[in-house]
Design goal:
- By secondary structure, the protein is α/β, with parallel strands linked by helices.
- The chain has 3 helices and 8 strands, in the order E-E-E-H-E-E-H-E-H-E-E.
- Strand 1 and strand 2 form a beta hairpin.
Length: 151
C-alpha cells in the first residue's frame, strides 16, 4: 500500500463538473493498493498519516499532526501509484490491485481514518476525477506499508 501525502490549504475533487469532496486546512491523500495489502497495512498507514508531524507549530516548525491542528483529509484512490515504468515508456499497472478488491480496502482505509475522529472527504472510486490541490509548503511525503517492519 502506498499513500502520497500532501499538506493542503484547500483542495477539492470533482466528477462530471460537480464537486464531490472538498477540504480546507488538512491533507490530501493519494491512496494505492497492491496484491499483498491487508488490514494491517491499512492500520499501519492510518497511524502514520494521523501522527505525521508536518504542520507548523507556533514557532513555524513542522511539529504538529493533523489531529493537533484539527484538519480534514481529502482521500483519493490512485491506482497509478503502482505504475511500473522499468520497460519502455508506457506504464504497466500489473502491480495495482484490481478495482473490486481495491475498493474494499480503500473503504476500510477511510473508515479507519474516520474512527480517529477526522473528517474525511473522498472522490468516487473508479471515476474520472479532477483534483484541485493547493499544496502548502509544498509538503509532499510518500508512505509505504512495506516499510512497516523497518525501524
Amino acid at each position: 500500500m502506498k499513500v502520497l501525502v500532501q499538506r493542503s490549504l484547500n483542495s477539492s475533487v470533482s466528477v462530471d463538473n460537480k464537486i464531490v469532496g472538498k477540504i480546507d486546512n488538512g491533507l490530501v491523500l493519494l491512496v494505492g493498493f497492491t496484491y499483498a495489502d491487508t488490514i494491517e497495512d491499512i492500520k499501519y498507514l492510518v497511524k502514520k498519516v494521523i501522527n505525521l508531524r508536518i504542520f507548523d507549530d507556533e514557532n513555524g516548525i513542522m511539529n504538529k499532526s493533523i489531529i493537533d491542528v484539527g484538519g480534514s483529509i481529502l482521500s483519493i484512490s490512485q491506482f497509478t501509484l503502482y505504475a511500473d515504468t522499468k520497460k519502455g515508456n508506457r506504464p504497466s499497472y500489473i502491480n495495482a490491485l484490481n478495482g473490486e478488491e481495491a475498493t474494499k480496502l480503500y473503504d476500510l482505509f477511510n473508515e479507519e481514518l474516520r474512527n480517529n475522529d477526522i473528517k474525511v472527504e473522498t472522490g468516487i472510486f473508479g471515476s474520472d476525477m479532477k483534483v484541485s490541490i493547493i499544496n502548502d509548503g509544498p509538503v509532499t511525503i510518500i508512505l509505504e506499508s512495506r516499510n512497516k517492519n523497518e525501524k
